[in-house]
C-alpha cells in the first residue's frame, strides 16, 4: 500500500507540475497581453468592451490607465467561474466512472484550450474562447486531491497533500519564468509561450495515459450517475455548497477527529466541513483577488517588465517549495488548523506591506510573508476536509472544497480589480489585508471547539 501511494503520488505530482508550468506561463504576460490586444484585435471585441468600460469609467470618474486591470480581473474571474461550474461535475463523474477517465478528459480539454490560444495572436475573441475552454476543463487539480486521498491513510494524508502543494510551488517557480523568458527571447507577446504550453499539455496527456492506474476500485464507486448529476446541482448553488448538502450518510454524534495528538469529541464531521469550508472560501475570496492583481501593481508602480515579473514569481515559488517540502509535509496529524492559523496571520501584514511598498526591499518582505501563507493555508484546510466524510464520497467532498475555491477565485478578482481600478492599489491591498482578519477569527473559533 505504501509503495502504491508513493508511485501514485509521484505520477500525480509530476502531471500537476507539467500542467501548472503550462498554466502559469501566462501570469507575467497579462499586462503586456492586454496592451497588445488594445492595438491588435481583428475581432473588434476588445475595442467594444473597452468602450463600455470607458462609459462606466466616465460615470464614476475612475482613472483610465487602470482599465487593463479591470479587464484582467474579469477574464480571471470568468476562468474561475467556469471552473466552479465544471469541477463538481468532473468530481462526481469520477466517483462513478473512476479517476483515470475523468483525468484524461480534463487534460484533453486543457490541451484544446492551448491550441486555440496559439491561434489568437490577433483575435481577442479567440483568446477569450481559449480561456473559456480552459476554465471548463480545469478539473485535474480537484481530481489530484481525490486520487491522493484514495491511496493514502489518514496518518499519511497530510504528507501526501503536502506533495501536491510542492507540485504547485514548482509550477509557480518554473512556469512564469518560462513564459517571461520565451516572450523576452523570441520577441512575441505570447505566441511562442502558447506553443510551448501546447507541447507541455500534449506531453502531460500521454504521460497520464501510459503511467496512471485507476485508484478508485469499482466496489467503492457511487452506483448511480443520476444521483451524481443531482448532487452536482448542489455544488453550483452557493448556499448548498457552503452547507455541504451533497454529502450524504456522514457520521453524526460520536464522531472523532485527531487533534493535537489525541482524539477529541465533536458533534459532527459535517460541522467541521462547513466551518472549514467557510474559512477556505473567505480566505481565497480575498487572497485570490489580491494575488491576481499583483502583476499589475508591480508593473504600474515599479515598471516591472515580463522578465522581472517572472523573477518575482520565481522568488515566491522557491520559498513556497522550501516551506512545503521542509515544513508542511512534517506537520503531525491534528496540527493542520494551527499551521493554517499561522498562515492566515502572515497574510494580513503581507498585503498591507505590499500595498504600501515604495521600493523592492519592502516588496520582498511582503512577498516572503505572502509565500508562507500560500504554502500553508490551503494544504492544511484541504487535509482537514479530506479526513472527514465517508470513503465513497471523498471525491465529492474534495470536489466541493475545490468548487468553493473556484467560486472564491471567480468573485475575488472582480472585487479586487474594481477596487484597484476605482481607488488605486494602496487602498485595495490594505483594505483586503485587514479584511483577512475575518477568516482568522473563524479559524480561531473552530480551533476552540476542537479543544
TrEMBL record:
UniProt key word Glycoprotein: no
Predominant place of localization: membrane
Cellular compartments per GO CC: brush border membrane
Annotated Major facilitator superfamily (MFS) profile domain residues: 8-451
Domain of life: Eukaryota
GO molecular function: transmembrane transporter activity
Protein's cellular compartments: Membrane
Membrane-spanning ranges: 9-30, 69-91, 103-129, 160-182, 189-212, 271-290, 310-327, 339-357, 363-385, 421-443
Pfam families given in the database record: MFS_1
Membrane topology: Multi-pass membrane protein
Keyword Kinase found: no
Keyword annotations: Membrane, Transmembrane, Transmembrane helix, Transport
Protein name as it appears in the record: Major facilitator superfamily domain-containing protein 10-like protein
Amino acid at each position: 500500500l505504501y509503495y502504491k501511494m508513493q508511485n501514485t503520488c509521484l505520477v500525480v505530482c509530476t502531471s500537476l507540475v507539467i500542467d501548472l508550468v503550462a498554466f502559469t506561463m501566462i501570469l507575467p504576460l497579462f499586462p503586456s497581453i492586454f496592451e497588445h490586444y488594445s492595438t491588435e484585435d481583428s475581432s473588434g471585441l476588445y475595442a467594444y468592451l473597452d468602450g463600455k468600460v470607458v462609459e462606466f469609467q466616465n460615470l464614476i470618474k475612475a482613472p483610465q490607465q487602470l482599465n487593463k486591470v479591470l479587464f484582467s480581473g474579469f477574464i480571471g474571474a470568468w476562468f474561475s467561474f467556469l471552473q466552479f461550474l465544471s469541477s463538481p461535475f468532473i468530481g462526481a463523474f469520477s466517483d462513478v466512472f473512476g479517476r483515470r477517465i475523468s483525468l484524461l478528459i480534463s487534460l484533453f480539454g486543457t490541451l484544446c484550450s492551448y491550441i486555440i490560444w496559439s491561434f489568437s495572436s490577433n483575435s481577442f475573441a479567440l483568446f477569450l474562447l481559449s480561456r473559456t475552454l480552459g476554465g471548463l476543463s480545469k478539473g485535474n487539480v480537484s481530481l489530484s486531491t481525490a486520487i491522493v486521498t484514495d491511496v493514502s491513510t489518514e496518518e499519511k494524508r497530510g504528507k501526501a497533500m503536502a506533495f501536491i502543494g510542492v507540485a504547485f510551488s514548482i509550477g509557480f517557480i518554473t512556469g512564469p519564468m518560462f513564459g517571461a523568458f520565451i516572450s523576452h527571447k523570441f520577441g512575441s507577446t505570447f505566441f511562442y509561450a502558447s506553443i510551448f504550453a501546447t507541447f507541455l499539455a500534449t506531453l502531460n496527456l500521454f504521460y497520464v495515459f501510459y503511467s496512471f492506474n485507476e485508484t478508485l476500485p469499482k466496489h467503492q464507486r457511487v452506483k448511480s450517475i443520476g444521483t451524481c448529476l443531482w448532487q452536482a446541482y448542489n455544488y453550483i448553488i452557493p448556499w448548498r455548497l457552503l452547507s455541504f448538502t451533497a454529502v450524504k450518510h456522514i457520521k453524526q454524534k460520536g464522531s472523532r477527529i485527531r487533534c493535537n495528538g489525541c482524539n477529541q469529541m465533536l458533534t459532527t464531521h459535517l460541522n467541521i466541513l462547513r466551518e472549514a469550508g467557510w474559512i477556505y472560501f473567505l480566505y481565497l475570496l480575498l487572497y485570490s483577488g489580491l494575488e491576481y492583481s499583483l502583476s499589475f501593481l508591480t508593473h504600474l508602480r515599479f515598471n516591472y517588465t515580463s522578465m522581472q515579473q517572472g523573477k518575482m514569481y520565481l522568488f515566491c515559488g522557491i520559498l513556497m517549495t522550501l516551506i512545503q517540502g521542509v515544513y508542511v509535509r512534517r506537520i503531525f496529524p491534528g496540527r493542520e488548523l494551527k499551521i493554517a492559523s499561522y498562515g492566515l496571520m502572515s497574510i494580513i501584514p503581507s498585503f498591507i506591506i505590499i500595498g504600501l511598498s515604495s521600493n523592492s526591499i519592502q516588496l520582498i518582505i511582503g512577498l516572503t510573508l505572502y509565500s508562507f501563507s500560500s504554502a500553508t493555508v490551503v494544504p492544511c484546510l484541504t487535509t482537514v476536509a479530506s479526513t472527514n466524510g465517508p470513503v465513497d464520497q471523498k471525491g465529492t467532498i474534495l470536489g466541493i472544497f475545490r468548487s468553493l475555491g473556484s467560486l472564491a477565485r471567480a468573485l475575488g478578482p472582480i472585487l479586487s480589480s474594481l477596487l484597484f481600478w476605482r481607488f488605486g492599489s494602496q487602498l485595495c491591498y490594505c483594505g483586503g489585508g485587514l479584511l483577512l482578519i475575518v477568516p482568522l477569527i473563524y479559524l480561531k473559533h473552530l480551533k476552540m471547539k476542537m479543544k
